[in-house]
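Record type: ASSEMBLY
Status: queued
Input:
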Amino acid sequence: MTMSRQADPASTAQRLKALEAQAKEAQRTIDELNARDALKTQFLSNISHDLRTPLAAIITHAEILRDGMLGELNQKQRDSVKGIVSGGQQLLDMVDEILTYVRAAGDQLTLTRTEFSIVELIDQVRMLNQALAAKKKLTIERMNGDDLPPIYADRDKLKHVIGNLIGNAIKFTPDGGRIWISLSRYGRKGEELVVEVGDTGRGIAQENHELVFREFAQVDASPSRSHHGTGLGLAIARKLVELHDGTIWVESELGKGSRFFFRIPLAPRRA
Amino acid sequence: MAGRILIVEDSTLVTDAFEILFRAAGYDVAIAATVAEAVAHGRTESVDVMLLDLSLPDGDGIEVLEELGATGRLPRATLAMTGHDDPKIRQRCLDAGCADVLLKPLPIGDILRHIERHLA
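Status: finished
Output:
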C-alpha cells in the first residue's frame, strides 16, 4: 500500500506562520535601518548648518584684517591672513556641498527653470575656475556650442553640475594638462543636450565607473590619499542631472584621461 | 558717510565680527538678538540700515518688519540675511519690504557695498 504524500494541513499552517514571522522580522529590520539612515542624514544636516555660522565669523574676521580695516598689515602678515580666508572658504564650500547633498537625498530640491544660454553658463564656470587651472598650467577650452538654442532648465543647479565636473577635472589632471568642454545634440530631433567635460588626467579604471557617482565614495579612500574632499561632488551632480530627467556617465581608462557626459532635455514640456 | 546700522542676529559670533567691520568702516552700530529687542530698538531709535537675520530665537525676522511697519518706524532700508538660496524665501522678504536679500556668508567687500548703496 502506498501512502499518498499529501501535505499535512497542520504543518503547512505552521510553516506559513513561521514565514510570516520571518517577513515581519525582516520588515522590522528594514524599518530600523531606514530610521537610522534618516537620523544620520538629519545629523549631517544639523552639524553642517551649525558649522556654517562659526566658519562664516572666522572668515569675516580674517577678511577685516586682510583688507587692512584695523590697520595695515605687512606682506607676511597679509599672506598669512589670506591663508585663513582661503582655508575657511574651502571648508565652507565643503560644508555647503554636504548640505546640498542632504537636501538632494531627502528629495527637498526642486527645479526653478528659466531659459538661458548654456554656453554663457559654461564660459562663466570656466572663468571662475581659471585661476585654479592656471596654478597647474592647465587649459580649459570650450570646443563648440555657439549655435545651440537656449535651454529651459535650472541654471544654478546646472552651474553646480558643470562646476563639479570642471573642478574634478582640475583636481585629477596633472600639471600642463588639458580640459575641454564639448556640446552636442542628441535624439531624433536633437531634443536633448549632451555636455562632455574631458581631461587628460589619470583616468578611472572600468570597475570604478559606477563607484565614482556613489555618495562618499572615493576611488582612493585611504587616509594617505592625495586628493581630499567630501566625496559628494559627483553624487550631487548625478542627483541634479536626474532631477532634470537626464543621465550622467563617464568614459575612461586608467592613464588615458576621463570624459564625463551628461544628457538632459533641451526644452522639456512646460508645466 | 556715517549712518546707523542695526544688526538683528542671535549669534554673537556673527554680530561681533559685523560690529568690528562696520565700526571700522565708520558706522554707528546697534545689535538686537531677538525679534522683541529689534522691535524695541526700532521704536525708540532711528535706523538707517537694518541687517535682518530671518531665523531668530523668538520668531521669524519678517515679524520685525511687520511690527515696525505698523507703527511707521521702518528703517530706511532693510537687508535680509539668509543661508538658503531659495527663490521663495527671497520673494517673501521682498514682499515684506526688504530692499534686498543677502545670501550668508558674504565677502565683507560685498556687504559694505550693499550698505553704501542703500545709504546713498
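Annotation: Helices of chain B lie at 12-24, 35-44, 62-70, 87-95, 108-119.
Annotation: Chain B touches chain A at residues 11, 13-14, 16-18, 20-21, 24-25, 83, 85, 87, 104-105, 107-109 (CB under 8 Å).
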